[in-house]
Design a protein that fits this description.
By secondary structure, the protein is of the alpha/beta class. It folds into 2 domains: 216 residues, Vaccinia Virus protein VP39 (Rossmann fold, 3-Layer(aba) Sandwich), CATH 3.40.50; 61 residues, no CATH class. It contains 11 helices and 12 strands. The chain has a 7-stranded mixed sheet with strand order 7-6-5-8-9-12-11, sandwiched between helices. Helix 2 packs across helix 3, helix 4 crosses helix 6 and helix 9 crosses helix 10. The protein is globular, with a radius of gyration of 20 Å. The N and C termini lie far apart (41 Å).
């Protein structure tokens, strides 16, 4: 599949290890090459009220996983890996946490109000138990060496500290079959089995998994077209079967957002209308079956 967000002419291949089940882009762009796939638009804040509301909702959902760490009269220390523009850390700082971040993307905004390490997480100059919590929200799928990240988190957490992270669920229909992954920014694709293997190697104990859309969504775009192609026509579903989403359609035809453009997109992909109408039902079924596109894991250092 191509880089649907920024370079639709560039295609990439995702493969799966037949021994452990880990998925990964092969070949993977180097650390230097991948920077081009994180242009400033990737970090843009549209400044709309709906986006601000979405940010607050996400930050609140993330914070719930860290409630037990904060005790009266105590200011725990949090490190957020892949902190982006710093929204989550500011949210936590306002609630009594001391905060630090890690962000290597050259196009992210400068941050002055708290410490940010502008280097790979594995290279930060912290090598002993220091943090009460380390978080990585939709980060580990972006890195070139996930094992090193798990081990670093295990090494810098205090005993009893939490490592909380969200990754795409490679056992989901959206990730495995519907071309919903953000390739090539998503370099690795995790199953429950591979997550447990990483945590075991890092000396961390898995306490909880939430397979849901509480923090980030991976909606099952094109699930209806997939079912028709594979179940009715008994054929494989390829990227050529994927219709342009609304944003891609507007970009291709140089159209502004609006009611008329929405109608044009609906006429172009009528099955997508029914596909989206039924999303809530399909998503809730997937969550009940633990096959939704995202999973949040909570692990503790003994």
């Amino acid at each position: 599949m191509p880089d649907r967000a920024f370079f639709p002419q560039e295609f990439f291949t995702v493969v799966e290890c037949l021994q452990c089940g880990l998925g990964f882009v092969n070949p993977r762009p180097s650390r230097e090459e991948i920077q081009r796939h994180y242009p400033p638009e990737y970090f843009e804040d549209p400044g709309t009220q709906s986006h601000a509301h979405c940010l607050r909702r996400r930050c609140s959902a993330k914070a719930k996983y860290l409630r037990e760490i904060q005790q009266p009269g105590r200011e725990p220390l949090l490190l957020d890996v892949g902190c982006g523009n710093g929204d989550f850390l500011r949210f936590m700082a306002a609630r009594g946490w001391r905060v630090e971040g890690v962000e290597v993307a050259e196009s992210s905004r400068p941050i002055q109000d708290f410490k940010v390490y502008r280097q790979q997480f594995t290279d930060i100059p912290v090598n002993q138990p220091t943090y009460d919590a380390v978080t990585a929200w939709a980060v580990l799928e972006h890195v070139h060496d996930p094992m090193a990240y798990f081990r670093k988190a295990g090494g810098i957490l205090k005993p009893g500290g939490l490592f909380v992270f969200q990754v795409p669920n490679f056992e989901s229909l959206a990730s495995r079959c519907l071309f919903c992954e953000d390739v090539p920014r998503h370099l690795y694709f995790f199953t429950r089995k591979t997550v447990r293997q990483y945590l075991d190697a890092a000396g961390l104990l898995l306490e909880r998994e939430d397979n849901n859309r509480n923090v980030y969504k991976m909606a099952p775009y094109n699930w209806l077209a997939y079912q028709y192609k594979t179940r009715v026509r008994k054929q494989g579903f390829t990227f050529q079967d994927v219709k342009l989403n609304y944003r891609e359609y507007l970009q291709l035809h140089h159209l502004p957002r609006g009611f008329a453009s929405t109608l044009r997109h609906a006429a172009y992909a009528p099955s997508a209308v029914l596909d989206r109408i039924l999303w809530p039902v399909i998503e809730n079924v997937q969550i009940l079956r633990r096959t939704y596109g995202n999973s949040t894991f909570v692990a503790r250092k003994p």
